[in-house]
């Protein structure tokens, strides 16, 4: 049969080859004309070619997974496909499948399936091949997933999310809370990612009630997406109770109602009722109510309230976790009035003027007055009588009552008791106390008053005590008056002494000044007559100039001091002698050596340096001190080459014009 045929105007070519390519023209003609139609025939013929569609160079799959590797070469005619692993032909099996489109599928991949795979394509024009590598990765597994947790508000917890994965795979952890992604940057106050590459643990610091819910940890790689979820329950103290109302109030009780607030995942076990008044410092617990009807409205009666006092109430709930926030306070309401039931205390009195009985007590605070129209009932009678006298004091703030009667003798004892009343009636009375009526001022002046000057600024006043009785007036003490001339209007001082003291030292006076002094007795009624004035002239001022030109020298173990005699001015007291003050440092005890001369002798200090100053002594007192002198200790002098004999005794002697004083250093 011929390869090229024409049938009914159709050109048929069989067994095409490249030489059949070209332009073909069809001519159709009749008696009228001839027409032409052209067509091009291209015969495609090529060996398999992978240049445009090579096999994927690297295919990645996890252990246990499935993978397909496509093989789609360009080939005309269509090529037949075969596969090689390495250099060996790949045969089909239960796990290895050669698909109709030429792809290779491997199921349930193992580590041993990794390697180089080659697709071989063949047709009559030749063959072609393309190779790629199969990389098998270990599967990613969440080894430590987050688990359900039950925590207390304020705690810090860690939700684990740890994986095992192929070390060549990058792992990304993302956390979700109740379906929303957790932005660790915005939630830094509470949320923090901790751990390394394979650890996606989530730390929640200072966890709050609002953190209760579902936490989802997602693990992402280039090959897979895993997740694990856990429920977190955060339990805390109950929320504040709501709608606290006072349903009924009497003089001593109050009926309350309220609704519980949220239990915050831990059942409410108890309610505490607290109250305060305008007089209280803070809230006080007045009742507790066990939680029984969860979710219902509660009622409780508070007892032991004070009548006629404004109260406000609040309720606090508690559970196993702790005590919650208090409710808003109720409306401020006042209890009903009642008869006062608290009697005044500390019943006392006395004093006042002659023919007076002064009675005092502690005022009852407003919160215990129990109603309006509050006042005090004063009851009293002379000791030994049977009839009580009764008076009312209507002033609420009063705490004193004075009864006047000319027949009352001084210091007469009375039995006294004080009660209370208000518009509701009379209340309690105090126990009986003994109170004395007022007394007369002392009637006698002290005798034997004298005064003596001790220095330029000090004098002492003395007197004889007064023997008293009911007729002459009780003496509680004495009052010393002193002034600088005979006119009492220029009095500059008044000092009181209590009891039987009969002398008083007065200081802060002016030097070389005449002072007058007088003494009088006093008691609760006032002061008595003054004694005749006595006077004294204070001493002249002490010398104002300090000792000068102080010199010291060493003689064996002795320190010799010399200074100039101080000359005084006309208005200064004469120098009677000198004081040498010495100490080891400014914090140690000061020792004093007195002398009538202008020289003295001390032992050289053995353990520490001496600090020495010298001052004058006079009738007017001590004068000014010299500048402080530091005398080195023995060890310092020895290091300077001075030979010192260590003293061993304590002695006091006079040598020539020197007043010598020696003291063993260890005895200081």
UniProtKB/TrEMBL annotation:
Keywords, comma-separated and alphabetical: Cell adhesion, Cell membrane, Disulfide bond, Glycoprotein, Immunoglobulin domain, Membrane, Repeat, Signal
GO cellular component: axon; plasma membrane
Main location as per UniProt: membrane
Coiled coil location: none
InterPro entries: FN3_dom (IPR003961), FN3_sf (IPR036116), Ig-like_dom (IPR007110), Ig-like_dom_sf (IPR036179), Ig-like_fold (IPR013783), Ig_I-set (IPR013098), Ig_sub (IPR003599), Ig_sub2 (IPR003598)
Compartment list: Cell membrane
Gene Ontology biological process: axon guidance; brain development
GO molecular function terms attached to this record: cell-cell adhesion mediator activity
Domain Fibronectin type-III: 240-338, 343-440, 445-541, 542-636
SUPFAM superfamilies, sorted: Fibronectin type III (SSF49265), Immunoglobulin (SSF48726)
Biased composition (Polar residues): 527-542
Record region (Disordered): 527-548
Superkingdom of source: Eukaryota
Gene3D superfamilies in alphabetical order: Immunoglobulins (2.60.40.10)
Ig-like domain boundaries: 48-135, 139-227
Name assigned to this protein: Contactin-6 isoform X5
Organism for this UniProt entry: Mus caroli
